[in-house]
Each structure stands twice: as structure tokens, then as C-alpha cells.
Amino acid sequence: MEEVLKDKYGMILGRIRDNGRELVLYDKCGLILGRYEKDANKTKDKYGLIVGTGNLLVAFLHLNF
Questions:
Q1: Dist CA 51 CA 11 (whole Å)
Q2: What is the pTM of this model?
Q3: Which of 6, 21, 47, 51 qualifies as a FRET site for 64, CA 20 to 30 Å off?
Q4: Percent of the chain scored above 70 by pLDDT?
């Protein structure tokens, strides 16, 4: 399943894809910005470093601009 994230003008900011055990955030160009591991309840950045507990993926979109 995929969720498209848009700004208030309808421009695509990114996409979140659910592959079962994790959610993966992609920017508008298709580059991975981060991952949320459901079973561990941890969010990791594009380098695999843990940035926090819970799903914090949308925060990466703000940092990407």
C-alpha cells in the first residue's frame, strides 16, 4: 500500500510505502528519507540511524526542503 503526501497546493512532497513490517518514506524524486520499523516501534533515517521512538517519518519531509 502507498500513501501520497501532498502540500496544501496539491504538490507531491513524498510517498510512504507499507511493505508489511515497515513503512518507508520516499521524497518526490523517489529517494529514501527514512524507515519506521513497526515491530521495534523505531524510526530510522536514510543512513539507518535511530532517530526516535514511534512513527516520525513526516518530520523527514520538513527537513528535506
A1: 27
A2: 0.91
A3: 21
A4: 95
